Amino acid sequence: MTLALDLPPDRYHGRRLLFALLVILTVALGVGLMAGTLRVGGFGGLDALILVCFALTLPWSAVGFWNSLIGLAVMRRRAATTNSGIDGVTGPIRGRTAILSCIRNEDAATVGRNLDRMIAGLLETGQRQGFEVWILSDSDWEECIAAEETVAQDLASRWAGRMRVHYRRRPDNVGFKAGNIRDFLTGPGVAFDYALVLDADSVMAPETILGLARTMESRPQLGILQTLVVGLPSVSAFARPFQFGMRLGMRSYTLGSAWWQGDCGPYWGHNALIRVAPLRDHCELPLLPGRPPLGGHVLSHDQVEAALMRRAGYEVRVLPLEGGSWEENPPTLLEFIRRDLRWCQGNLQYLGLLALPRLRPVSRVQLLLAILLFLSSPAWVLLMVFGTLGLGRVDGAAAVLDPALGSILLTLVLTMVFAPKLATLTDLLLRAEGRRAFGGAPRLIAGALAETLFSALLAPVMALAHTLFMAGLPFGRALVWGPQRRAAHRVGWRQALRRLWPQTLIGLAALLWLASTAGTWWLSPFFVGALIAVPLAVVTASPTLGLSLARLGLWRIPEETDPTPLIQALDLPALDLPALAVARGARDSGQGAPVAAPRAAAEPAE
């Protein structure tokens, strides 16, 4: 399908002004409703603090609401002018593309499997020229280095004469992943026109790769081009609701954002095709003043590179197409938190980059929104804390809150929070093929309801994790850039308590305080989620529960309903449930010994 990527600049200007006006009016409405709600009994200092915290939470929610509403309208119109597809360009690809697999102390076997299947898929299309695979390693664990070298040699031998495979390792990881890519760009990368950037868990379909390359060749103004990156099917009880909710929320949100961002879209750091020359010549990351964790090398390189690419005059585009580009989701709550905290630290570094000269206004807005994504967490936490303290001083919420305005405000907030998922769910339920892809309407609705409950329990856990982490940043607290444990695994009670005791303690203290006040039920869900953080982490890491959920088809995604040949070739456990059950039964009965976890899968220090 050929979809237009071009719109006159004034059309984008008009859309952006309209979107900004909608967001500003929504934020103003929310602030006004909160101010009116708090005026009962007078407006004091505590009320002012509550209002400020609430105002900080609104921009991200308002952006998500309007993105999803616009996205739903686009989905229902089947519009062809929203940057939502790959141009129907055919023929051979003239330029040279380096497929960059960026790894650091990862499971080399999984990396090799993914690359092997992608190479096979590309060769099956008849595209034998112009692509080379480069494994760019920053590993410093000897066993990982040895495994990587073996995998690279095996791939090079297997595909000799058809596609070249290279292995390149740095002795250190200066500049992290972005530094590794830059070393490549200023070395062997000068011989290439495009770079397809992959993470260790990335998988891309050959038709997606070729479509991106042909579109890039046909449009010299494109600097970064990507489609939606969705989660691979998982048997993790934690990853399953996350993979389902991600699919519900992403499509409407990204369609809506593409409608107004257009040629100034975001970049997610992987599964994207990039024009090498401008990336090398114009997108070198600045070294931030000061010491880590907020100074030094930029951790979250992606959005900064997008801003610099756009400043250089090249377009950054997201094509909101599902399928053809995948990644693995964290299998446990603890891994999810660790990944999020690394993003948190990286995004907060953008505070030092907002004043970069000559950035496009939309690029500055995107950097600011990336900061607010995490700053909204302590704002929510403080909002709950101040609200709890305020209610504890009076006899019931009615003494300090206007019930009518409060009900309207609560409805507005919940609508904005759940709008992206509700928008996509609405579109899926209205389309027969959409319902079938997720296992039918009953399973789709049941999954949406269960995922909503899961998200409500997860939100306070993550908000507190972000808040506590940010509180330590001024004192030098930072995360080590280490590998993720990507395979499903158990989490012990002691391990969960060691990581999540602050959430448990805060939740218990708040609920005991609220129990002594009247009319405070609406604050309880936030603290209930915090209180049960430890059992949530342990239970959702249970392999038995994950297998049962997969068998039931709860939180099923299209890749499980109708897997493509590439997904089938990955031999994922979620697509081979009978064999997985037999293997797990053999281990549980003592007939087989579990494979020892490699050092790369160990929990890294913070």
Main sheet attributes: strand count, strand direction, barrel closure: 7 strands, mixed
Intertermini distance: 47 Å
Query: How many individual helices?
Result: 21
For the largest beta sheet, what order do the strands appear in spatially?
Answer: 3-2-1-4-8-6-9
Topology, number of strands = 10
Q: Percent range for helical residues?
A: 55-70%
Question: Which outline best applies?
Answer: globular
The Cα radius of gyration reads 24 Å
Mean pLDDT: 87
| Structural class determined from secondary elements | alpha/beta
Poorly predicted regions are 79-85, 579-606
Bin the strand percentage. 5-15%
Write the layout of secondary structure elements.
Layout: H1 9-38, H2 45-77, E1 97-103, H3 108-124, E2 131-137, H4 142-158, E3 164-169, H5 176-185, E4 194-198, E5 203-204, H6 206-218, E6 222-227, E7 230-231, H7 239-261, E8 272-275, H8 276-282, H9 301-311, E9 315-319, E10 325-327, H10 333-348, H11 361-392, H12 403-429, H13 432-437, H14 441-472, H15 493-515, H16 524-531, H17 533-539, H18 543-552, H19 558-561, H20 565-569, H21 577-588
Parallel strand pairs: 1-2, 1-4, 2-3, 6-9, 7-10
Antiparallel strand pairs: 4-8, 5-10, 6-8
Helix pairs in contact: 1-2, 1-12, 2-7, 2-11, 2-12, 3-4, 3-6, 7-12, 7-14, 9-11, 10-14, 11-14, 12-14, 14-16, 15-16, 15-17
Write a short abstract of this structure.
This protein is an alpha/beta fold. The chain has 21 helices and ten strands.
Q: Would you give an account of this structure?
A:
This protein has 606 residues and is of the alpha/beta class. It is 57% helix and 8% strand. The protein has 21 helices and ten strands. The protein has helices spanning 9-38, 45-77, 108-124, 142-158, 176-185, 206-218, 239-261, 276-282, 301-311, 333-348, 361-392, 403-429, 432-437, 441-472, 493-515, 524-531, 533-539, 543-552, 558-561, 565-569, 577-588; strands at 97-103, 131-137, 164-169, 194-198, 203-204, 222-227, 230-231, 272-275, 315-319, 325-327. A seven-stranded mixed β-sheet has the order 3-2-1-4-8-6-9, with helices on both faces. Strands 5-10-7 form a three-stranded mixed β-sheet. β1, α3 and β2 (131-137) form a beta-alpha-beta unit. α1 (9-38) packs antiparallel against α2. The longest helix has 33 residues, at 45-77. The protein is globular, with a radius of gyration of 24 Å.
